[in-house]
Amino acid sequence: MAIVTVPRVLREKLGEEGAEALVVLLNEALHHERNNLLGILEERFERRVTDEGKRLDNLITEVEARLNERITEVEARLNERITEVEARLNERITEVEARLNERITEVEARLNERITEVEARLNERITSVEAKLEKQIAEVEARLGERLAGVRADLIRWMFLFWVGQIGTFVALLFAFLR
């Protein structure tokens, strides 16, 4: 609050109480004017803020509409481009798939041919090995038969000698006990 001093001449004319009352009156008037001025300024400020808010809202709405329009355009272009790329890729995939199927068929045919050749060679080898093994088995059986016959003859001879020895021993023991 502003300090108001009353000049001495006026103070003498009004008196001490009158000078004080004049200061209070002036201070109240100043305070009242300040409040009125603040109210007017506050009202103007509110109006200006409201106007600026409306202007900004309108501007935001316009910008939003333009951006939505651009987004829609870009989205349409991108969808169109994606469709084109997808079609090209599907076409390339079909071509590659056809080439791979051809190669697979060729490789399969070559492998089947090679498998048939290898199978024929293996069958020939198996047949020849089988014949050799049968011949060897027959030879081994013949030798084994001969050896078994020899062993059998030796065994019979040794058995005969054993039994003759046993009978001789038995007879000797009988004579020894009977005498």
UniProtKB/TrEMBL annotation:
Lineage: superkingdom: Bacteria
Keyword Transmembrane among record annotations: yes
Record-annotated membrane-spanning stretches: 158-178
Keywords of this entry: Coiled coil, Membrane, Transmembrane, Transmembrane helix
Entry coiled-coil feature ranges: 68-143
NCBIfam families listed in its UniProt record: LA_3696_Nterm (NF047472)
Name this polypeptide is given: DUF1640 domain-containing protein
Lineage: Bacteria, Pseudomonadati, Rhodothermota, Rhodothermia, Rhodothermales
